[in-house]
Amino acid sequence: MSLRPAVVLALLAVVLVGCTQEPASTGRVSAAAIISTVEGFAGKDAAVSHINVLRKEAKNGEVSFVDLAIACKPGTRDCLLVAPDGAGYPNLADFVDDTKLLEPGDTISGAGGIPTHPDTAQSETITKNDPADAAWTVVGLSAAGLVVAALVVFVALWLVRRARGRRDADRLLTEWDLPPED
C-alpha cells in the first residue's frame, strides 16, 4: 500500500474524531448563567418569557416540570431556548440531546414549535438518547467508511494492474507473430 492512501485514511479518521462537540450544558442550575446567555444572545432589551415542559424520568417514572426561558431579539422572531443551567439552544430537540440536566431515557413533553413559535395546540415529545450509543454509532460509521474507502482503493488498484497486464499480454503476442509467408 502506498503512502498516499494511508495518509488520506488517517486524515479522514482525524476529521471524523474532530466532529464530536462538547456539550454547552454544565448541569448546574444558575440564574447568573441564564442572564448571561440571554444578554449575550439578545442584549439587555431582550424579550424574555418562560415556558414549562414536562419531564418524565426513565429510572423511576417521576414527573416534574423544567422551567425554560425563551429569549428573543427585540423586534424579531429570532429566539433562543435557555436551559436552567444557562445553555442556549435553537429548539427543544437540541436541548434534550445536549443537556446534562436530563438522564438517558428521560422524556420531555412541551408545546410544539418552541422557542420560535410555541403552539399549545400541538405537543412535542422527545426522549433523550444515550450518548454512549451515539459514540458507538460514530465509531461504527467510521469503521464502515474506512472499509468502503479501502475497498475503493483496492478495486482501483486491481483495475489498473489488470489493464497493465492486458497490455503486456498484447505486446507479447505481437512479438511472437510470425513473418509473412512468401
How would you explain this protein's 3D organization?
By secondary structure, this protein is an alpha+beta fold. The chain has four helices and six strands, in the order ααββββαββα. α1 runs antiparallel to α4. The longest helix is centred in the last third of the chain and has 45 residues, at 131-175. Mean pLDDT is 78; it is low at 16-22.
Order of helices and strands: HHEEEEHEEH
What kind of sheet is the major sheet?
Answer: 6 strands, antiparallel
Number of strands: 6
Low-confidence stretches: 16-22
Give the averaged pLDDT, no decimals. 78
List the defining traits of the structure above:
single chain, 4 helices, 182 residues, alpha+beta, six-stranded antiparallel sheet
Task: Record the SSE blueprint.
Blueprint: H1 3-18, H2 31-42, E1 47-56, E2 63-72, E3 79-82, E4 88-89, H3 92-98, E5 107-112, E6 119-127, H4 131-175
Describe the structure concisely:
This protein has 182 residues and is of the alpha+beta class. It contains four helices and six strands.
